[in-house]
Write a structure and sequence with these properties.
By secondary structure, this protein is α+β, with helices and mostly antiparallel strands. The protein contains 3 helices and 5 strands, in the order E-H-H-E-E-H-E-E. A hairpin with a 2-residue loop joins strand 4 and strand 5. Helix 1 crosses helix 2.
Length: 125
């Protein structure tokens, strides 16, 4: 199994918090799918850290795609949790087509957040 793409992204949690506070639902609906917004049940900084990690995962996926990412909307990349709580990517529409065009079948993701930063790495295989 060869690697078809690799992407990493890091973002400051307060940057996502500021965007949410400024643009509210308009930003949230443009970037996140309904199941991803369930993290908003968390309180304060924990919610923003979870949103930031999901943003980083979307960016990391797009970076892993390279030039094929041009027409992939953020909402087509959904971060979900598996049965054991592990993150994985559910791809929709243009994201799924771009992955297939690359010749990959899976997008592996790792998320982390610590203090002021969230980071994600995506490997396409």
């Amino acid at each position: 199994m060869g690697v078809a793409g690799l992407g990493t992204d890091i973002i400051r949690v307060d940057r996502i918090a500021a965007i949410v506070e400024r643009h509210g639902d308009r930003f949230l609906r443009r970037v996140y799918r309904p199941d991803e917004l369930a993290v908003l049940t968390r309180v304060g900084a924990a919610a923003y850290a979870a949103l930031a990690a999901r943003w980083a995962a979307k960016e990391a996926f797009l970076k892993a795609l390279g030039p094929r990412s041009a027409n992939v909307p953020y909402r087509d990349v959904e971060v979900v949790r598996g049965a054991a709580g592990e993150p994985w990517l559910r791809l929709h529409g243009a994201a799924a087509r771009a992955l297939a065009d690359l010749g990959a079948t899976r997008a592996l993701v790792s998320l982390s957040h610590e203090g002021d930063h969230a980071v994600a790495t995506v490997i396409l295989v």
